[in-house]
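User: Could you go from structure to sequence for me? I need the amino acid at each position, not a summary. Structure tokens:
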């Protein structure tokens, strides 16, 4: 009987952890898919590049295509124009500041696309625009180069 009780105590938490993520409250644990983890890794790599002041490494996670879009002051299309706009808005690493992303959610939109949403907080001196925060929405495409941003908007 004691073994049964111990087994029950050990199995109960495992059964709860294995419950499907659908319908769970946002603060509950769930098992992410391989694709969700891969997209999250891209977001973390972008955050790391940003915080190192490496705008080119940050933008390397964007797809180099004419139909890639970033909503900055308005829609900017194509990686070359997106890169130029970012370099205009963030000419120095001090202007980039320190980026922290939180409450990130990744949802698969089929086998080759994913949506990532979350919050961001940008810390920088008043001289370079001061602190700012908001939300972000990124759409990723799975390519032969990995998951790349094809649409990005911050607000």
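Assistant: Here is the amino acid at each position, in order:
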């Amino acid at each position: 009987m004691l073994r049964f009780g111990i087994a029950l105590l050990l199995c109960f938490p495992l059964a709860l952890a294995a419950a499907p993520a659908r319908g769970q409250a946002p603060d509950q644990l769930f098992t992410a898919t391989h694709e969700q983890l891969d997209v999250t890794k891209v977001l973390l790599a972008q955050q790391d590049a940003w915080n190192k002041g490496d705008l080119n490494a940050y933008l390397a996670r964007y797809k180099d295509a004419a139909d890639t879009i970033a909503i900055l002051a308005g829609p900017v299309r194509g990686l070359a124009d997106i890169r130029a706009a970012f370099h205009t808005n963030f000419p120095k690493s001090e202007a980039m500041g320190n980026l922290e992303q939180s409450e990130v959610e990744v949802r698969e939109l089929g086998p080759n696309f994913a949506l990532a949403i979350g919050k961001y907080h940008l810390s920088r001196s008043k001289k370079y625009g001061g602190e700012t925060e908001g939300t972000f929405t990124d759409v990723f495409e799975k390519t032969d180069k990995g998951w790349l941003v094809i649409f990005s908007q911050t607000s």
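One structural detail worth keeping in mind: The chain has one domain: 34-154.
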